Amino acid sequence: MSFQPVKFYQTGTLTVGNRLLAQDERSVQANQMRSNSINSGHRACQGCGEALGARYAIDAAMAESNGQLIAANATGCLEVFSTPYPESSWQIPWIHSLFGNAPAVATGIAAAMKVKGRNDVRVVAQGGDGGTTDIGFGCLSGMFERNDDVLYICYDNEGYMNTGVQRSSATPPAARTATTMPVGPEPGNVFGQGKNVPEIAMAHNIPYVATATVADLRDLEYKVRKAMRMRGARYIQIFVPCPLGWGAASHDTIRLARLAKETGMFPVFEAEHGEVTSVLKIRNKVAIEEYLKPQKRFAHLFGKHAHPETVARLQAIADRNIRKYGLLAEGGN
Amino acid sequence: MLKQTEGSKAVAEAIALCRPEVICAYPISPQTHIVEALGEMVKAGELTPCEFINVESEFAAMSVAIGSSAAGARSYTATASQGLLFMVEAVYNAAGLGLPIVMTVANRAIGAPINIWNDHSDSLSQRDSGWMQLFAETNQEAVDLHIQAFRLAEELSMPIMVCMDGFILTHAFERVDIPSQEQVDAYLPPFEPRQVLDPAEPISIGAMVGPEAFMEVKYLAHAKQMQALERIPQLADEFKQIFGRDSGGLIRTYHIEDAETVVIAMGSVLGTIKDVVDEMRAEGHKIGVLGIISFRPFPLELVRAALIKSRRFIVLEKSLAVGMGGIVATNVRMAVSGTGLKGFTAIAGLGGRAIPKSSLHKLFRQAEKEELEPVTFVDLDWDAVNKQLEREKQTRRSGPIAENILHDKGIVSAKFG
Ligand SMILES: Cc1ncc(C[n+]2csc(CCOP(=O)(O)OP(=O)(O)O)c2C)c(N)n1
Ligand code: SF4
Ligand SMILES: [Mg+2]
């Protein structure tokens, strides 16, 4: 798919103007034939980034696999809000086994498809950041290392949301969670910890690793479709703001996702066989405060007992990402 | 075909004859030879179509089997001891989802202290997981039970553990009749799943279930095992018709008709017990044996019927319900409740301690005279135990128990594996 960023700006917004594109370049969601893999009526909170991300990702995977898709799901918000008995939102074959084993379950499904000669049937596994970067990490690394034919999608909302917003290894420094309260000399989550799973995935030399956000849904669809055209272990981490866990307004989900990218806090890139092949450049660089302030999980950094030095440390993390991944456009601001 | 072969090798051949489609395994003694042999068969193209997956843990092994079974592939794994405990969450999950996975458990003790030798603590710890558990007495029976297990598991859509004593069976070379492919194909039809992940007919498996339906799902797992109580003897009969051997079933008795004292056990120790019973019978003792093949489902009625004419029973088990006594014994007592039968529990062979005939002679004679305590620890070194208890009384920092005992017993270096 070719991007025409100049044309998008002509619409006057950052949204993608489908009308400006050729029929075959339009988004999956714009197509009436989209699969609606995760149907409406599920019980996600209003403005849930994870529900949005899953919808776009799985519909894109369905489009690319001609509807021949099976999904394995880890325990977490996505699983809980989509399948309270006796209802299920899933319009595709879907299995939930445990919190920490979705990659291995997917490996088993892929192996079954292989013995049965069903090379047309493709397999995705999906889970939250906790299910991915913490408890499911052993299974994930095993699936990567064996290069099993599975696309794993991590919905990163930076915490254990389903159990009431506790810290995960994807929780950013300073963030308030139920287990990193804004008390004591270093309020919120500590600095110097955490796991960068996209980079760890790259270290496995798997065919494809990408990050995406729910602010750039075209980019998200493009990456899922690209991943689905490849074989072997593939990993996509999607940044999905959680209004409930972050203490943010439901209508700010897309804005926060965009700010995470535009500040450099969440680098959006692609890598093949361990090497970065493209980055989504920052369009208008934004100071970190703009991203932090709408979120109550960072509220303790501002106001009466402000922690400007902590804000500066977060800014430094964002700046380091910008340097490391070359996120600023040539001659950009 | 008759063969002089290792138990593990024989079981691997039996599994291969069952045409598994996905095998996933993580190594742990004494299970290793089984999966090594299967891995070689798959790699050499002798077992096809089949995927052999070298997973990174037992938790992954069971999880891969969950995925492949739910996708309609006949799935097999094997483990033991720490490996079984490492996969426990997925063990329960496989049963809860109703997936007919077959798993060999090469029975081994559970640490700490780490110990690779045989007892039944591992599989018995999973007695309430929803898995059926069949215990083999010989390597021939291990071969036969695996073939029956696939049939039963797939009929009921429930998973089964076939338990065989680690080392004592897995590493023993003895004569085994390996069936032909034609025989196995005649007995075991292709896997026809009750539920399958199929894009042509999308379903959700493993959805969240609240109080409104959870009990029914759990009850149905129980109901399946109650069905198995009927099907296991029938499947053993059918097995005999095709393979020409008595193998399987729920229980097996030996000289029980006129027995006043009945010894109850599971697994390979039944061989030693029968030898002792033969010798005691020759001396005129009215003693018999009840072997339990199916521990789950537990054949309460058959056990009761087998014991009802006797005066007393003694359960010899390679497991310990810490703080209580026996595990198998508790189940047996449930079977005979209200009969007034006198029952004894003997804990023996933990961590691979030999169970010699001499100890059994002594034990059974004491049982006959009803001179035993309710729970007896066979061949326990009381000196070593008392010394440690005394040490703990005297010194706060008494140190690690296992190391103290080894030191007291004068065993300088123990072998760990
Ligand atoms: C073995 C195990 N430990 C803990 C839990 C409890 N648990 C269920 S979901 C969840 C949090 C999920 O967090 P994440 O994976 O980030 O997904 P999210 O809900 O944030 O989308 C936890 C801790 C569990 N179900 N299983
Ligand atoms: S808690 Fe967060 S992740 Fe969970 S449903 Fe609500 S918004 Fe979505
Ligand atoms: Mg999360």
Descriptive overview:
The complex is a heterodimer of chains A (333) and B (417). Chain A has 333 residues and is α/β, with parallel strands linked by helices. Chain A has one domain (27-325): Rossmann fold (3-Layer(aba) Sandwich). Chain A contains twelve helices and eight strands. Chain A has helices spanning 5-10, 49-64, 77-82, 102-115, 129-134, 137-145, 197-203, 217-228, 243-246, 253-263, 288-292, 308-325; strands at 69-73, 94-96, 122-128, 151-156, 208-213, 234-239, 269-272, 275-279. In chain A, strands 2-1-3-4-6-5-7-8 form an eight-stranded mixed beta sheet, sandwiched between helices. The two termini of chain A are 27 Å apart. Residues 3-12 of chain A have low confidence and may be disordered. Chain B has 417 residues and is an alpha/beta fold. Chain B has helices spanning 7-17, 32-43, 58-70, 81-86, 88-97, 121-124, 139-156, 181-187, 214-243, 269-282, 300-307, 328-335, 357-368, 382-394, 401-408; strands at 2-6, 22-25, 51-54, 75-79, 102-107, 132-135, 160-165, 173-177, 204-205, 251-254, 261-265, 287-292, 294-296, 312-317, 342-347, 375-377. The interface between A and B is large, with 45 and 44 residues. Strand 2 (94-96) of chain A pairs parallel with strand 9 of chain B. The complex binds thiamine diphosphate, iron/sulfur cluster and magnesium ion. Residues 50, 75-78, 99-100, 127-131, 155, 157, 159-163, 168 of chain A line the site of thiamine diphosphate (TPP).
